[in-house]
Every structure is written in C-alpha cells, then in structure tokens.
Amino acid sequence: MRSSFTLRYALLSLVLAIFAYCYGLDSRFAPKNGDEYPYMHIVRMTADSGHWLPLQSQMDGIKNTKPPLIFWQGIASTYWASDWTLFNLRWPSVLYTALTSFFLFLAVRRFSGKTHTGLLAGLVWLSFFATYRYGRPFLTDPPEVFWISLPFFALLYWGKCAFESKLFFPVLAGLCFGLALFAKSFAYIVPATVALGLYFWYWRDWSIKKVLTLDLYKLLMIGILALGVFSLWFALDPQPEAVWKEFVLGENAGKFAARSSNYLLDLVRGGDSIWMLLLTTLTNAGLFSFVLLSTLIQAWRERRFLSAQEVLLFLLIGAFLLVFSLPSQRSGRYLLPVMPAFAAVIALHWERLPLWGFRIALILQFVVLAVLTYLGANLEFSKFAVDSVAWTYSYAHWILMGAALIVTVLGLARPQQCKAFALMSCFLLYCALTSSLSPLEGQLGRYSAQTITQVKDKDIWIPCDYRAKDEEYGLLLPGAHLHGYLAKDAGNVGELIGTYPVVAVHSPLGVKPEICESCQIVGQRMEMRARHSDEEIKLMLQGQIGEHLFVTEYLISTPVSNPELLNVKDVCR
C-alpha cells in the first residue's frame, strides 16, 4: 500500500472515528438539530399511550410531522420509554451511520479493486461534519441515508448482475426505498427513482428505447413497492385523515409555496435560492469542504476520463440536486443521502488531489482547537464554581487537546502526511468539542439527587427557547411535571418568583439572586446561555468568557399558589 494513506493510518483513523462517534453520545451538548426535542416528545407521549399508532403529541401542529418508523425506533430502544436516556435514543442512529459507512466501504472496494480506497470512502464520509451532526442524534436522517444509499451501493457492488436483475434487485430497491420513505417522507421516491432511471439510461448506452423496453417496468415496480410500504402508515393509523392533512399537505406540499416574494425570485436569490442550496451542500463536508471543492475541480478537468462508477456517482448527485432545487424550501440537509457519493469521489481521487484543500482543513482545525484550548484554560483558571463544584478538566482532556494540536501542526509541516493527518484531525476535533463541555455533563451542570427527590411529582416552570425544550429538562429533573415560560425572561427573578410556585431562574455566575424570606433555593447548577448581545460577545473576546457564556440556574420554591397557571399555554408547546 504505497500511498500517503497507509494501512497504519487507515486503522488509526478508524479507531478515532469509532471513538469520536461513541464519545459523549449521551451529551446534551452534542452537535444536533433542534428537531430532536419534538421527536423525543412524540416518542414519550406515544409510548405513554401504550399503542404504536396514532402518534401522540401535546404540541400544536407537530404530531404527524414524520412517518412512524423513527418514533417506533425510539419506543423500542427505550423499552417503551421505561429506560429514558439520550444514549438509548441515539445508539440506533450511530448503528445506521456505521452500516452506511461499512456498505460504502464494500462498494468502493469492489469496483476500485483497492481496500484502502474503500476504507478512505467510508472514513471521509464519517469525517464530514454533517454526518457527525445528523448521524448521531435522534433524527430521521441516519435511517433515511442508509436505506436510500443501499440500492445504489448494490448497483456499484454487483454491477451487471444488479442492472440485469429482473426481480431480485427491483424488489430489494423497492423495499429499501420504502423504508426510507417510512422514516422520512414519500417525497424522496422522486429523486431516488430519477437517479435510478439515469443509472439504467447510462447502462443502456443512453438509449431511451432500451430503457423503456428493458427497465421501465423495474422502475415502476420499485416506485409502487416503495409507496406501498409508505402507505402502510395510512392503513395502520386509526386517524388517516390527520396523516393526510398534517403530513402530506402541511409537511410536504407546503414546501412548494413561495417563501418571500414569488417562486422564481426565490429560486435565484435569498436564503432559499439554488445558489444557497449548492453552497450548503458543499458545506455539508464541514472542514473538508475545500477538499471536496478541489475534488470537483479535478473531476471536471478529467471529465473525459472518468470511470463508469464515477459517472454513476455524479448522476446520483445530479438527480438529487435537480429534484431538490424544485421546492421553494431548499436546504443542504436534503442532500445528505448523496454525501456518501461525494466521499467516494474524494477517495477515488485522493492520491491525485492537490494539498491546498487539506491544508485549509488543517488550518481551520488548528484555529478551532486553539480557541477551544484558550476557552478551556480561561474557564479552568477563572475558578468558577457552583455549589462548591468548580469547572475542572481531567488530565485526559488536556492530553487530547495537545495531541490534536500536534497532529494538525505535523500535518501542515509534513506534506507526505498532510492528507492522512487532516482526516484524523477531524475526528480529534469532534472529540475535543465534546470534551470541552464535559464539566457540564457532571455535577457542575446537573441537579443533585437530593434536589431531584425533593421536586419529584411537583409542577416546575423552566425557561424554554425551543419547542419541547422541556424534554431536555426531563433528563435533568426526572419525575417532575415541567411547564415552560419564555427563556428571555429567565433573568427577571423578582417577577418569576412572584408568579410561579417552583421556578428555574438564571443569575450571573457568582451572583446569588435576591429572593423573598419565605422562598427557598432547592437546587442550583451551571448552564450555558444560548443567546448573547453584541456587547457580551465583545467582552467574551476580551477574556470575560465565563461571566457571559454561562449562568447559574437556581431552582426556587416560592409561597405562590395559583392553580390557574396549569391552564396557561405552555411555551414549550
């Protein structure tokens, strides 16, 4: 294996990737999308009902927001919500991500004839920040990406046998696409079948006649079978009319409505333009965005010499880009199913790629790691403490930060190892992100067992800045009945303790809130703030990080008694 990516680097990168995806899997601060909270809420409410369907929710307009497969997955992995942890909710997502990477490795190894190229494809896909962000939390993306990708991996792996298959492959593809639709949306059948149609068209030497004669029935079979699997939702759900109204019309058809001025203007300008779709698709690669850009430039220059498999990969990418440019709501997240194809292209061109893309990745990694090191040192030496618990890191954290910085520097200094070290540094950086907030995962950021016992079965009002944010607080205060108020009011201590019987309030670090004589502080912990003013950001840049990045959250019991509060609309809903 005479290349810059030796077997030793491959195995080391694989170990780092596994560790990065498993480390901090139960962290509240793991990179994620806010949809995780509503999905958790639907799982918990549906599990409490004791039935798989209909889906249950207390949120207005958010119940049949996604097909039931993801929610059934959450019900099963948490044993009907009896073992309610982020780890149990998320580990199936990591399993899906691992399987996607594994089958990508098999497909690329088969058609390239090189094991290290297959390993590269799987590892490069795992190094994309979008894969890390959406491939670990409790979201619909991991099963969607896996089930959509599997038929295309099969075509790349089996080649002629799959293309010429009259029954086995169409049935396999139909079932896989059906499960993808059952996890995400029936709309994905359009780009999936368009991509398959282009695959068959290319296989038939661009002969429309041959495709119509030999392959059209296969595409129809795949589409009908996939939609048949999805339609099981209507057949099994006791309230199919609600599914039609909320999911089909609201969640999907609504994405074609003009979002600002009109459809054509939205297409070419603004945050939902076709240009923004292209940019966000590129940035799905995260720190490897410039590596992906250099790969696309090189592929364009060598377009006359691309292999058949590379052409197929680009046809898959092009089909999804074309189809998802049509809705008025355009997002790079919709293109997550084609990111494995991008990773495969990078792996195929790896040895011939210029170093500038990898050097930019290493520079960005070094900057982020340096900032995290500075922030961590500032917080630890500032001696911030809550309830006698100080912000401290273990020795392992500083060893991790030092090793990550050394790898990035060596990658910049040694051209021969530049590419391999840039890949490994991605996984080290993801570990550093998690480790940097590790103190908040311990006693510092959690309520004591005594506090949890004291407020069990009580009504508590908590700050809410996102729908179903109380699901996160449910992990901090299990057994309590949670209600939300606007998070922007969390600092108005006097007003809050005069309104709610038991309420969580925020106060600057080291500043104990002024409370009434009959009020009692039940518990306290440190919490990271979500929104900051321009002045606060400026002060943080000057070194006053802890004072403005974090607050102390106090849980206060008051003499207020107002049963009518339970009838007031919950802000978290």
UniProtKB/TrEMBL annotation:
An example of a Gene Ontology cellular component annotation for this protein is: plasma membrane
Q: What highest taxon heads this organism's lineage?
A: Bacteria
Which Pfam families does the UniProt record give?
A: PMT
Positions of the ArnT-like N-terminal domain: 26-238
Q: What are the UniProt keywords, alphabetically?
A: Cell membrane, Glycosyltransferase, Membrane, Transferase, Transmembrane, Transmembrane helix
Primary location group: membrane
Q: Which residues form a coiled coil?
A: none
| Membrane topology listed for this record | Multi-pass membrane protein
Q: Which cellular compartments is it found in?
A: Cell membrane
Q: Which residues form the signal peptide?
A: none
Q: What GO molecular function annotation could you give as one example from this UniProt entry?
A: mannosyltransferase activity
Regions that span the bilayer: 89-108, 115-132, 144-160, 167-182, 188-204, 216-236, 274-299, 311-328, 334-350, 357-375, 395-413, 420-440
UniProt GO BP: lipopolysaccharide biosynthetic process; protein O-linked glycosylation
Q: Which PANTHER family match?
A: MANNOSYLTRANSFERASE YKCB-RELATED, MEMBRANE PROTEIN
Name by which UniProt lists this protein: Glycosyl transferase, family 39
Which lineage is the organism of this entry classified under, starting from the top rank? Bacteria, Pseudomonadati, Pseudomonadota, Betaproteobacteria, Burkholderiales
